[in-house]
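Entry:
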Amino acid sequence: MATFQVDTLLPHIPDDLTIPQFMLREMSGRPVRPRNVPFFIEDGTGRQVTYEEVHHRTSSLANALSLRWHVGYGDVVCIMSPNNITCPLSGQYKLSGESPSNPSYNTEELVYQLLTTNAKLIVAHPQCLSTAAAAAKVVGLSQTSIILLSRGAGDYANVEELVSFGAGRPENYKPVRLQPGEGRSALAFLALSSGTTGKPKAVVISHFNVIANVIQMGAHYHVNDPAPNKCRTPPGDIAMAVLPMFHIYGLVVNTHFSLFCGMVVLVVPKFNFQKFLDSIVRYRVTHLHLVPPQILLLCKQRIVKNYDLSHVKYCMSGAAPLGGELMRQVSEILPNASIGQGYGMTETCTTVAAFVADARLGRIGSAGRLMPGTVAKVVKGDGTLAKEGEEGELWVKGPSMSLCYLNNAVSTAETYVDGWVRTGDEVIIKDHEVYVVDRLKEIMKVRGFQVAPAELEAHILLHPDVADVCVVGIADEYNGEVPLAYIVPSVKALKAIGKDPVRHLDLKQTIRKHVSDAKVKYKHLAGGVEFIDAIPKNPSGKILRRVLRERARQDRKPIQSRL
């Protein structure tokens, strides 16, 4: 078999709608949200946001952005915030594209994102203001280009006053009206995705891509099936959004798909395990979208025994592999939940595969069954196509595939090939289930976040005591992987530390601090620093990273760190 594809019928995907139009219109072929079911609930306060408020706030804010900043089609607005009910109501992607940003970014990282995406405005949570202001200054954005999600220090505009401003004035903007087919290329999101070259790349995601993946998941999970217990996502159920909305999993699956199904999205700003449990019980959460470190806590923390989680009916694990033993253990913690894994990436605008709708537990080791409408092929090392059960790199195509990397022709040509997206993951496909064997790319995944070794290596080499470096990922029970740096100290450093173990340790700590002072937390060298005589390389000078990954596997048992 040359390609793999399920035979589930995929409903029509509109290509002339923006995401807000698609999400806010009552359309045939989708679940009907009862009028008493809110769109969002704010975790800390219990505040409910109804359909009417969503429509009013997004339209009013879009009007204000048009009036004050002339934001329009083709512009990009950067959103920097923890999960917040105001973020999905920000209104800018009624007019323009959005580039979600990690609220933990430092100034240098945010500057890179602003320059890469050419963002016109920054919408920031007050706790991100200092970073946003510093980055704006570097890239030449004025103070008036920063909008706070809520009232804060200084004379910055804030969303609440802008909603009132926009609502009180005649409509200045013209909502985007797409022609048939135009949605396939109309920019919705510029989401950053790390790569083996070090710096993150801006993935161009269209309105059609997001709408397509939502409809694909709807077909996969039988959202319109009237049979009792057949639909896993009935309107009125409550999905907890504890995954970051700036990450593609939290953005598309946890938020947009849940809303499409008529569910309520419980918006949790930050993961705290005990508060997480409290909220599941307080709001009678039915659907959990998690990552393996969170599931590990569910299985191993004694406090869980104090909570009745029997009302949870669905638990999806994504962003990193979930082991069979953890799946078995969490099935005891969530006795009435369907539990399994999903697989996707930013470049595929999320879900490529997910566990089947009628399963109590997904297949052990499987990342799930292919989405309706997604075509996959497995390419072996010699370029030939693998048969069912044979290993090779996963290539996929379908309506949700993103368009390209913004202003990066070289990386685009490597990943996007004749309509196919090369995932860089080595897989086996059997019975349309995807089994991830290994990551062919050098990228690491720490708590589901992509970390490029080359980015860390470039920074570590700036340290005067480092002559050469190679960063590899090592297994970590809590985080999935964490970075470990193999360092060749400089000649001067070697003379200074000699054979003194204390000086060796001090230099290792200094290098770790060099990284932690400059990088977001999940990029820290939680795997440690090891000194080595030389970094193994091939004749052309390319690092033989596999050699050191194997050395790390042999020298170290899986660790459990808490980044």
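The chain has a mean pLDDT of 89.
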